[in-house]
Amino acid sequence: MKMQMNKDIKKLNIEAKKYSEKLNLVLNEVKKIIVGQDEILDKLLICLVADGHVLLEGVPGLAKTRIIKTLSDTFNANFCRIQFTPDLLPADIIGTKIYDHKKGIFYTQKGPIFNNFILADEINRAPPKVQSALLEAMQERQVSIHGDTFKLESPFLVLATQNPIETEGTYKLPEAQVDRFTFKLLIKYPNIEEEKIIIERNTKGIKIKTKNILTSKETIKLQKFNQKIYVDEKIEDYVTKIVDATRNPKNYGLNISEMIECGASPRASIWIILTAKANALLNSRGYVIPEDIIEIAKDVLRHRLILTYEAEAEGITSDKIIDSILSKIKMP
Fold first, then answer.
1. What residues contact 91, with CB distance under 8 A and at least 6 apart?
2. How far apart are the two ends of the chain, measured CA to CA in Å?
3. Which of 15, 21, 76, 223 is least surrounded, with the fewest CB atoms within 10 Å of its CB?
4. Which fold has domain 2-216?
């Protein structure tokens, strides 16, 4: 039995290495355009391989639009940017039916959601009714327009951005929608050396083109292979304990009960496993190790923990709580 398992893992390793080489080519192409932000690029690629969505938080001017646009170019996929504003309507995102006076019939005008890569820029500037228009698309991969249902083509990645500083004219994202995002990533400023390169590239007329590395069909195959990455039962138990510790911290000797109002949902456990598989694949492995879990745990959990007012008043963040959980739960 063990010999057969070892053979299966060896096969997975061989195939994972082939896909990893392709993904590293994608990263190299994107890094021709994007300076710094290596961790963000890795996490975006992991999320795409796991077939999820990303909530990206950061101040304006950090190349969020350029990142997703460049990524779509390397995947030979359709890209669309939607600027969320207070006067935006759900129909502006998903589309609507329009009456043709000449033919006397209604026809469907599809919205920008019918693309492969969607940038939902400043998503928290639109009211909840508009934000909820993304829910069905993100979770079910389909859109309903006046009674008709349309499937969205794969690959499908929603990258939503929000500004953590400016709160005037913004709406808090509903918890149900936040939970639909696989990752919440925090984008930071570039360092001095990186900023010098950014200035040179953007003030001297330097134009760099990227190559198409993966087609849509190859990307779908990659996402399906990610499901096959081996996860040992001990790893699954480890993930279960981490997520359960956000709900029942006292059971694990953690004194953080008064800081957490609501723990992570089962969707968190699913995404930890799927993105850990993608992280393993990116590192040319056909199996998941505990370090893969550690690598993506914060990104999956930070937006799924609802903190109490006391915790917020004391300046305690979700990341600090996750750190305390990871340090307490023993790795297999």
1. 111
2. 21
3. 21
4. Rossmann fold (3.40.50)
